[in-house]
Amino acid sequence: MEQFDTALVLSRVLTSGVVMSIEKNDKELPALERLLTKRTRRSKAILVNSRSAAVHAALTGRDIGHGDTAELPAAVTDRDRAFVDWVGVTATAPADGAAPAPAFDLITLTSENAADLATAAADATAPTLVVDLTGLGFGPAAAVLTDDAGVWTRGERLKIFGAFDLRTMWTQEEAEPGLAPGVQFNYRLSPLVAACARMALAQAGTRSAEQTGDTPR
Asked: I want to staple 103 with a disulfide (CB 3.0 to 4.6 A). Which of 70, 77, 166, 172 is the partner?
C-alpha cells in the first residue's frame, strides 16, 4: 500500500475525531460495510475487530452456541478450532459420503489476493461468509456477510455497541429485547482500521479492473 494513500486516510479519520467513538456521524464503518456487501453480493455485513470475533458472530448468527455442534470449513486454523472449542461448540466432520456443509465459509484476505474477493465470495456456498481482513496489514479486522436477517441480528447483538445497542442508547428504548444475549463482547471495530481496510480493498478492486479491462464494482 502506498504510504501517501495511507497517510491521507489516517489524516482524514483523525481530523474527523471519530476514531474509536460510537457517534452517529461515523462514516467509515458504514462505508466499509457497503463496499463488502457490494463486492461479495451479500445484503448485510457485521464488522468486528478480529477473526475470532467473526467466527463467534457467524456461529451465533446461525444460533449455534455452547453445547451445540458445528461443521467447520476446511480453511479454519488450529487456533480457530481452539477458539470454537473455548466457546463450547464441538467441531464435527461431514458424515461418510456426505458433501461438506460448513456452518460458515471463510476467506482470508491479504494484499496479494484482495482483488479476488468477489470471485472467492461467489464460490462460497454456506449461508454465512466470514472474511478475515487482518492480512491487509492495518490491524485485526473481520466481517461476517449474509443475506439472512436473523444471522445479522444475532451477530450484531453479540457485540457491545453493535447496531441494536447504539439504537437503544440513542433512543433510550430497547431494540429487539427478545434477542438480547446473556453475554456480549468488545467486538466493535475501530473506524480508523475500517477506513484503512476499505482503502486497501478499493485499491485492489481498481487494480483488478485495470488488469482485466472490467469496470470496478
From this structure: 70
Answer for the pair 191, 18: CB distance below 8 angstroms, yes or no. yes
For the chain, the three-class secondary structure string (H helix, E strand, C coil) is CCHHHHHHHHHHHHHHCCCCCCCCCCCHHHHHHHHHHHHHCCCEEEEECCHHHHHHHHHHHCCCCCCCEEECCCCCCHHHHHHHHHCCCEEECCCCCCCCCCCCEEEEEECCCHHHHHHHHHHCCCCEEEEEEEECCCCCCEEEEECCHHHHHHHHHHECCCHHHHHHHHHCCCCCHHHCCCCCECCCCCHHHHHHHHHHHHHHHHHHHHHHCCCCC
Residues in the chain: 217
Cell of 28: 467509515
Decide the pairing of beta strands 44-48 and 90-92.
unpaired
Residue type, 209: A
> Do strands 142-146 and 128-135 pair parallel, antiparallel, or not at all (unpaired)?
antiparallel
| Amino acid (1-letter code) at residue 151 | V
What pTM does this model have? 0.85
Which of 74, 84, 158 minimizes the C-alpha distance to 124?
74
